[in-house]
Amino acid sequence: MTTGSPARTPVDARLSMNQRTVPSLSIPALIEACARHGYRHIGLWREPVAVTGPAEVARLVATAGLRITSLCRGGWFLATDAPTRREREDDNRRAVDEAAEIGADCLVLVCGPALGKDLVSARRQVADAIALLADYAREMGVRLALEPMHPLYCGDRSVVVTLAQATAIARGAGPGVGVLLDSYHLWWDPDLEAALAGATDLVAGLQLADWLAPPPHHLNGRGMLGEGTIDLRRFCRLVEELTEYEGPIEVEIFNEDIWAADPELVLQRVAASFSSEVG
Amino acid sequence: MTTGSPARTPVDARLSMNQRTVPSLSIPALIEACARHGYRHIGLWREPVAVTGPAEVARLVATAGLRITSLCRGGWFLATDAPTRREREDDNRRAVDEAAEIGADCLVLVCGPALGKDLVSARRQVADAIALLADYAREMGVRLALEPMHPLYCGDRSVVVTLAQATAIARGAGPGVGVLLDSYHLWWDPDLEAALAGATDLVAGLQLADWLAPPPHHLNGRGMLGEGTIDLRRFCRLVEELTEYEGPIEVEIFNEDIWAADPELVLQRVAASFSSEVG
Fold first, then answer.
1. What are B59-79's pLDDT values in tens digits?
2. Which residue of A89, A113, A224, B115 has the fewest C-beta atoms within 10 A of its own C-beta?
């Protein structure tokens, strides 16, 4: 490196910026910044999509030549009473509509949590709710992506905690239902290779974040690529070797320190860390 | 309930008080209090055993008519250099000696953490180290108990995160090596029933703590029985139905609020919560 400002790492063509990594940016600001930095893909969340409006999001993304790799999130299926359950079903259908309208590659589903202590029943209810939603998603041409979450979240987020579980539910729900792979949620699994081999045709998306040991926060303690304990290069290589997935790779990092940083620098850091840790 | 002080719940004959639930008590104080409350078993840790001295611990326990259900803990096998690895091996053999001297039912092993990002290699090294230690433990008549830990600890404590993994390593290490079941570490596992059925003859001990969602602390955020998300009755029933284990059940709760409470009340609360949640 010579004098002057440091060279920017070129953004890998596979890299997708999930907006929760830079949540201070509105969607128009995110799209402008990502396009300027050279990102080709972004991952979006429903709440900010609602602020900008799905039609406007679709227009801005098309104008910028970006692709939306995921919309987060539907799910949260379980309810104690029938009216609440119907509200959840309605809301999940709206999420499918939104994913269709913005043209997202998939709608990510959070599979839980249980309402009581009965995990067996909660897991069955989740599978039933997904099968029901799948009919509507197929009709709308939207791919559902079940996200197995780290067992850390079994009590408050997701009763689906392994890829093998998510794969079985996805297969049971029929065509158009896949799984989302996130390094943060899956890295610990001693059966990861077998689970990937079993999900080969079902991978709807791939996300990366590193694991800080111990996580500094229950929800918002994920690490920048390379700053934690996960062998991210191996994780991506296994996905490449054991599944048919060849799509974009999102970086989604919930971390309060990263959120407090200048989004311009975060967009650069993500590109640079992806290049050194995965690319 | 009429007037006067509330009736004490009788202590279940299976119940064992792990000393880390009431860490403010010295071992002599713990033994006196447990015997007075009607506990028949206790679980001990190496550091306080060293303070009192193993011979004195053995004498006090025998006098009180208590049984020691576990000694925590050996393990922490991995080292970056040969001298450190030999130190760890020496220390683990000392832990076996201590378990033998106090007459503990088993020596609990922490299986990790990895030193780098290579979980596959770390898991192999753990298995090798346990097989080596097992020779010495057999010689000394001490049962080793591999403790699979919640995947929450995969980065900083244990690369063995499922019961199936622990069972495979225990079988590979030969006779005298078993597994320790802890509800806190295992409750999330969608394959728990199959894993228990696979460990049927290997269960060396059973521990309970509840899962608070989210845990209020990485290490010391476990819950009193009944205050969290685990169906502890089902967990104990599965152990009873699917394994041959019929021994004592330890309550081991790392929780700073419980540690700050009067140990006399904690001994009562544990007995009462065990009675209502499991007994």
1. 999 999 999 999 999 999 999
2. B115
The answer on pLDDT for B1 being more than 70 is: no
- HSE on the CB side for B57, CA within 13 Å? 26
Element (H, E) at A251: strand A249-251
pLDDT tens-digit readout, A42-88: 999 999 999 999 999 999 999 999 999 999 999 999 999 999 999 99
Establish if A273 belongs to a structural domain. Answer: no
Q: Please tell me the distance from the alpha carbon of residue A5 to that of residue A3, in angstroms, as a whole number.
A: 7
Domain extent for A115: 15-208+230-249
Is residue A44 classed as helix, strand or coil in its secondary structure? strand
Q: Among B126, B99, B76, which Cα is nearest to B205's?
A: B99
Contacts of A52 (CB under 8 A, 6+ apart): A26, A27, A28, A60
Alpha-carbon Rg for chain A, nearest whole angstrom, is: 18
Q: Is residue B125 part of a domain?
A: yes
Distance CA B17, CA B37 (A): 11
Instruction: Please give the C-alpha separations between residue B202 and each of A18, B44, B107, B136, B160, in angstroms, as whole numbers.
Output: 45, 21, 14, 18, 16
CA B277 – CA B232 distance, rounded (Å): 6
Contact A17, A261 (CB under 8 A): no
Residues A257 and B273: their CA atoms lie apart, in Å, by 40
Rg of chain B over Cα atoms, rounded to whole angstroms, equals 18
pLDDT of residue A6: 60
Number of compact structural domains in chain B: 1
The complex scores an ipTM of 0.96
For residue A61, give every residue at least 6 positions away whose Cβ sits within 8 Å of its Cβ, in sequence order, or none: A31, A42, A67, A68, A102, A103
A276 touches chain B (CB under 8 A): no
Q: Does A111 touch chain B (CB under 8 A)?
A: no
Name which of B118, B150, B164 is nearest A231 (Cβ-Cβ). Answer: B118
Residue A10 lies in a domain: no
CA B185 to chain centre: 11
Interchain contact, B150 vs A155, CB within 8 Å: no
Output the domain CATH number for residue B247: 3.20.20.150
B187: chain A residues, CB-CB within 8 Å: 119, 154
pLDDT for res B6? 60
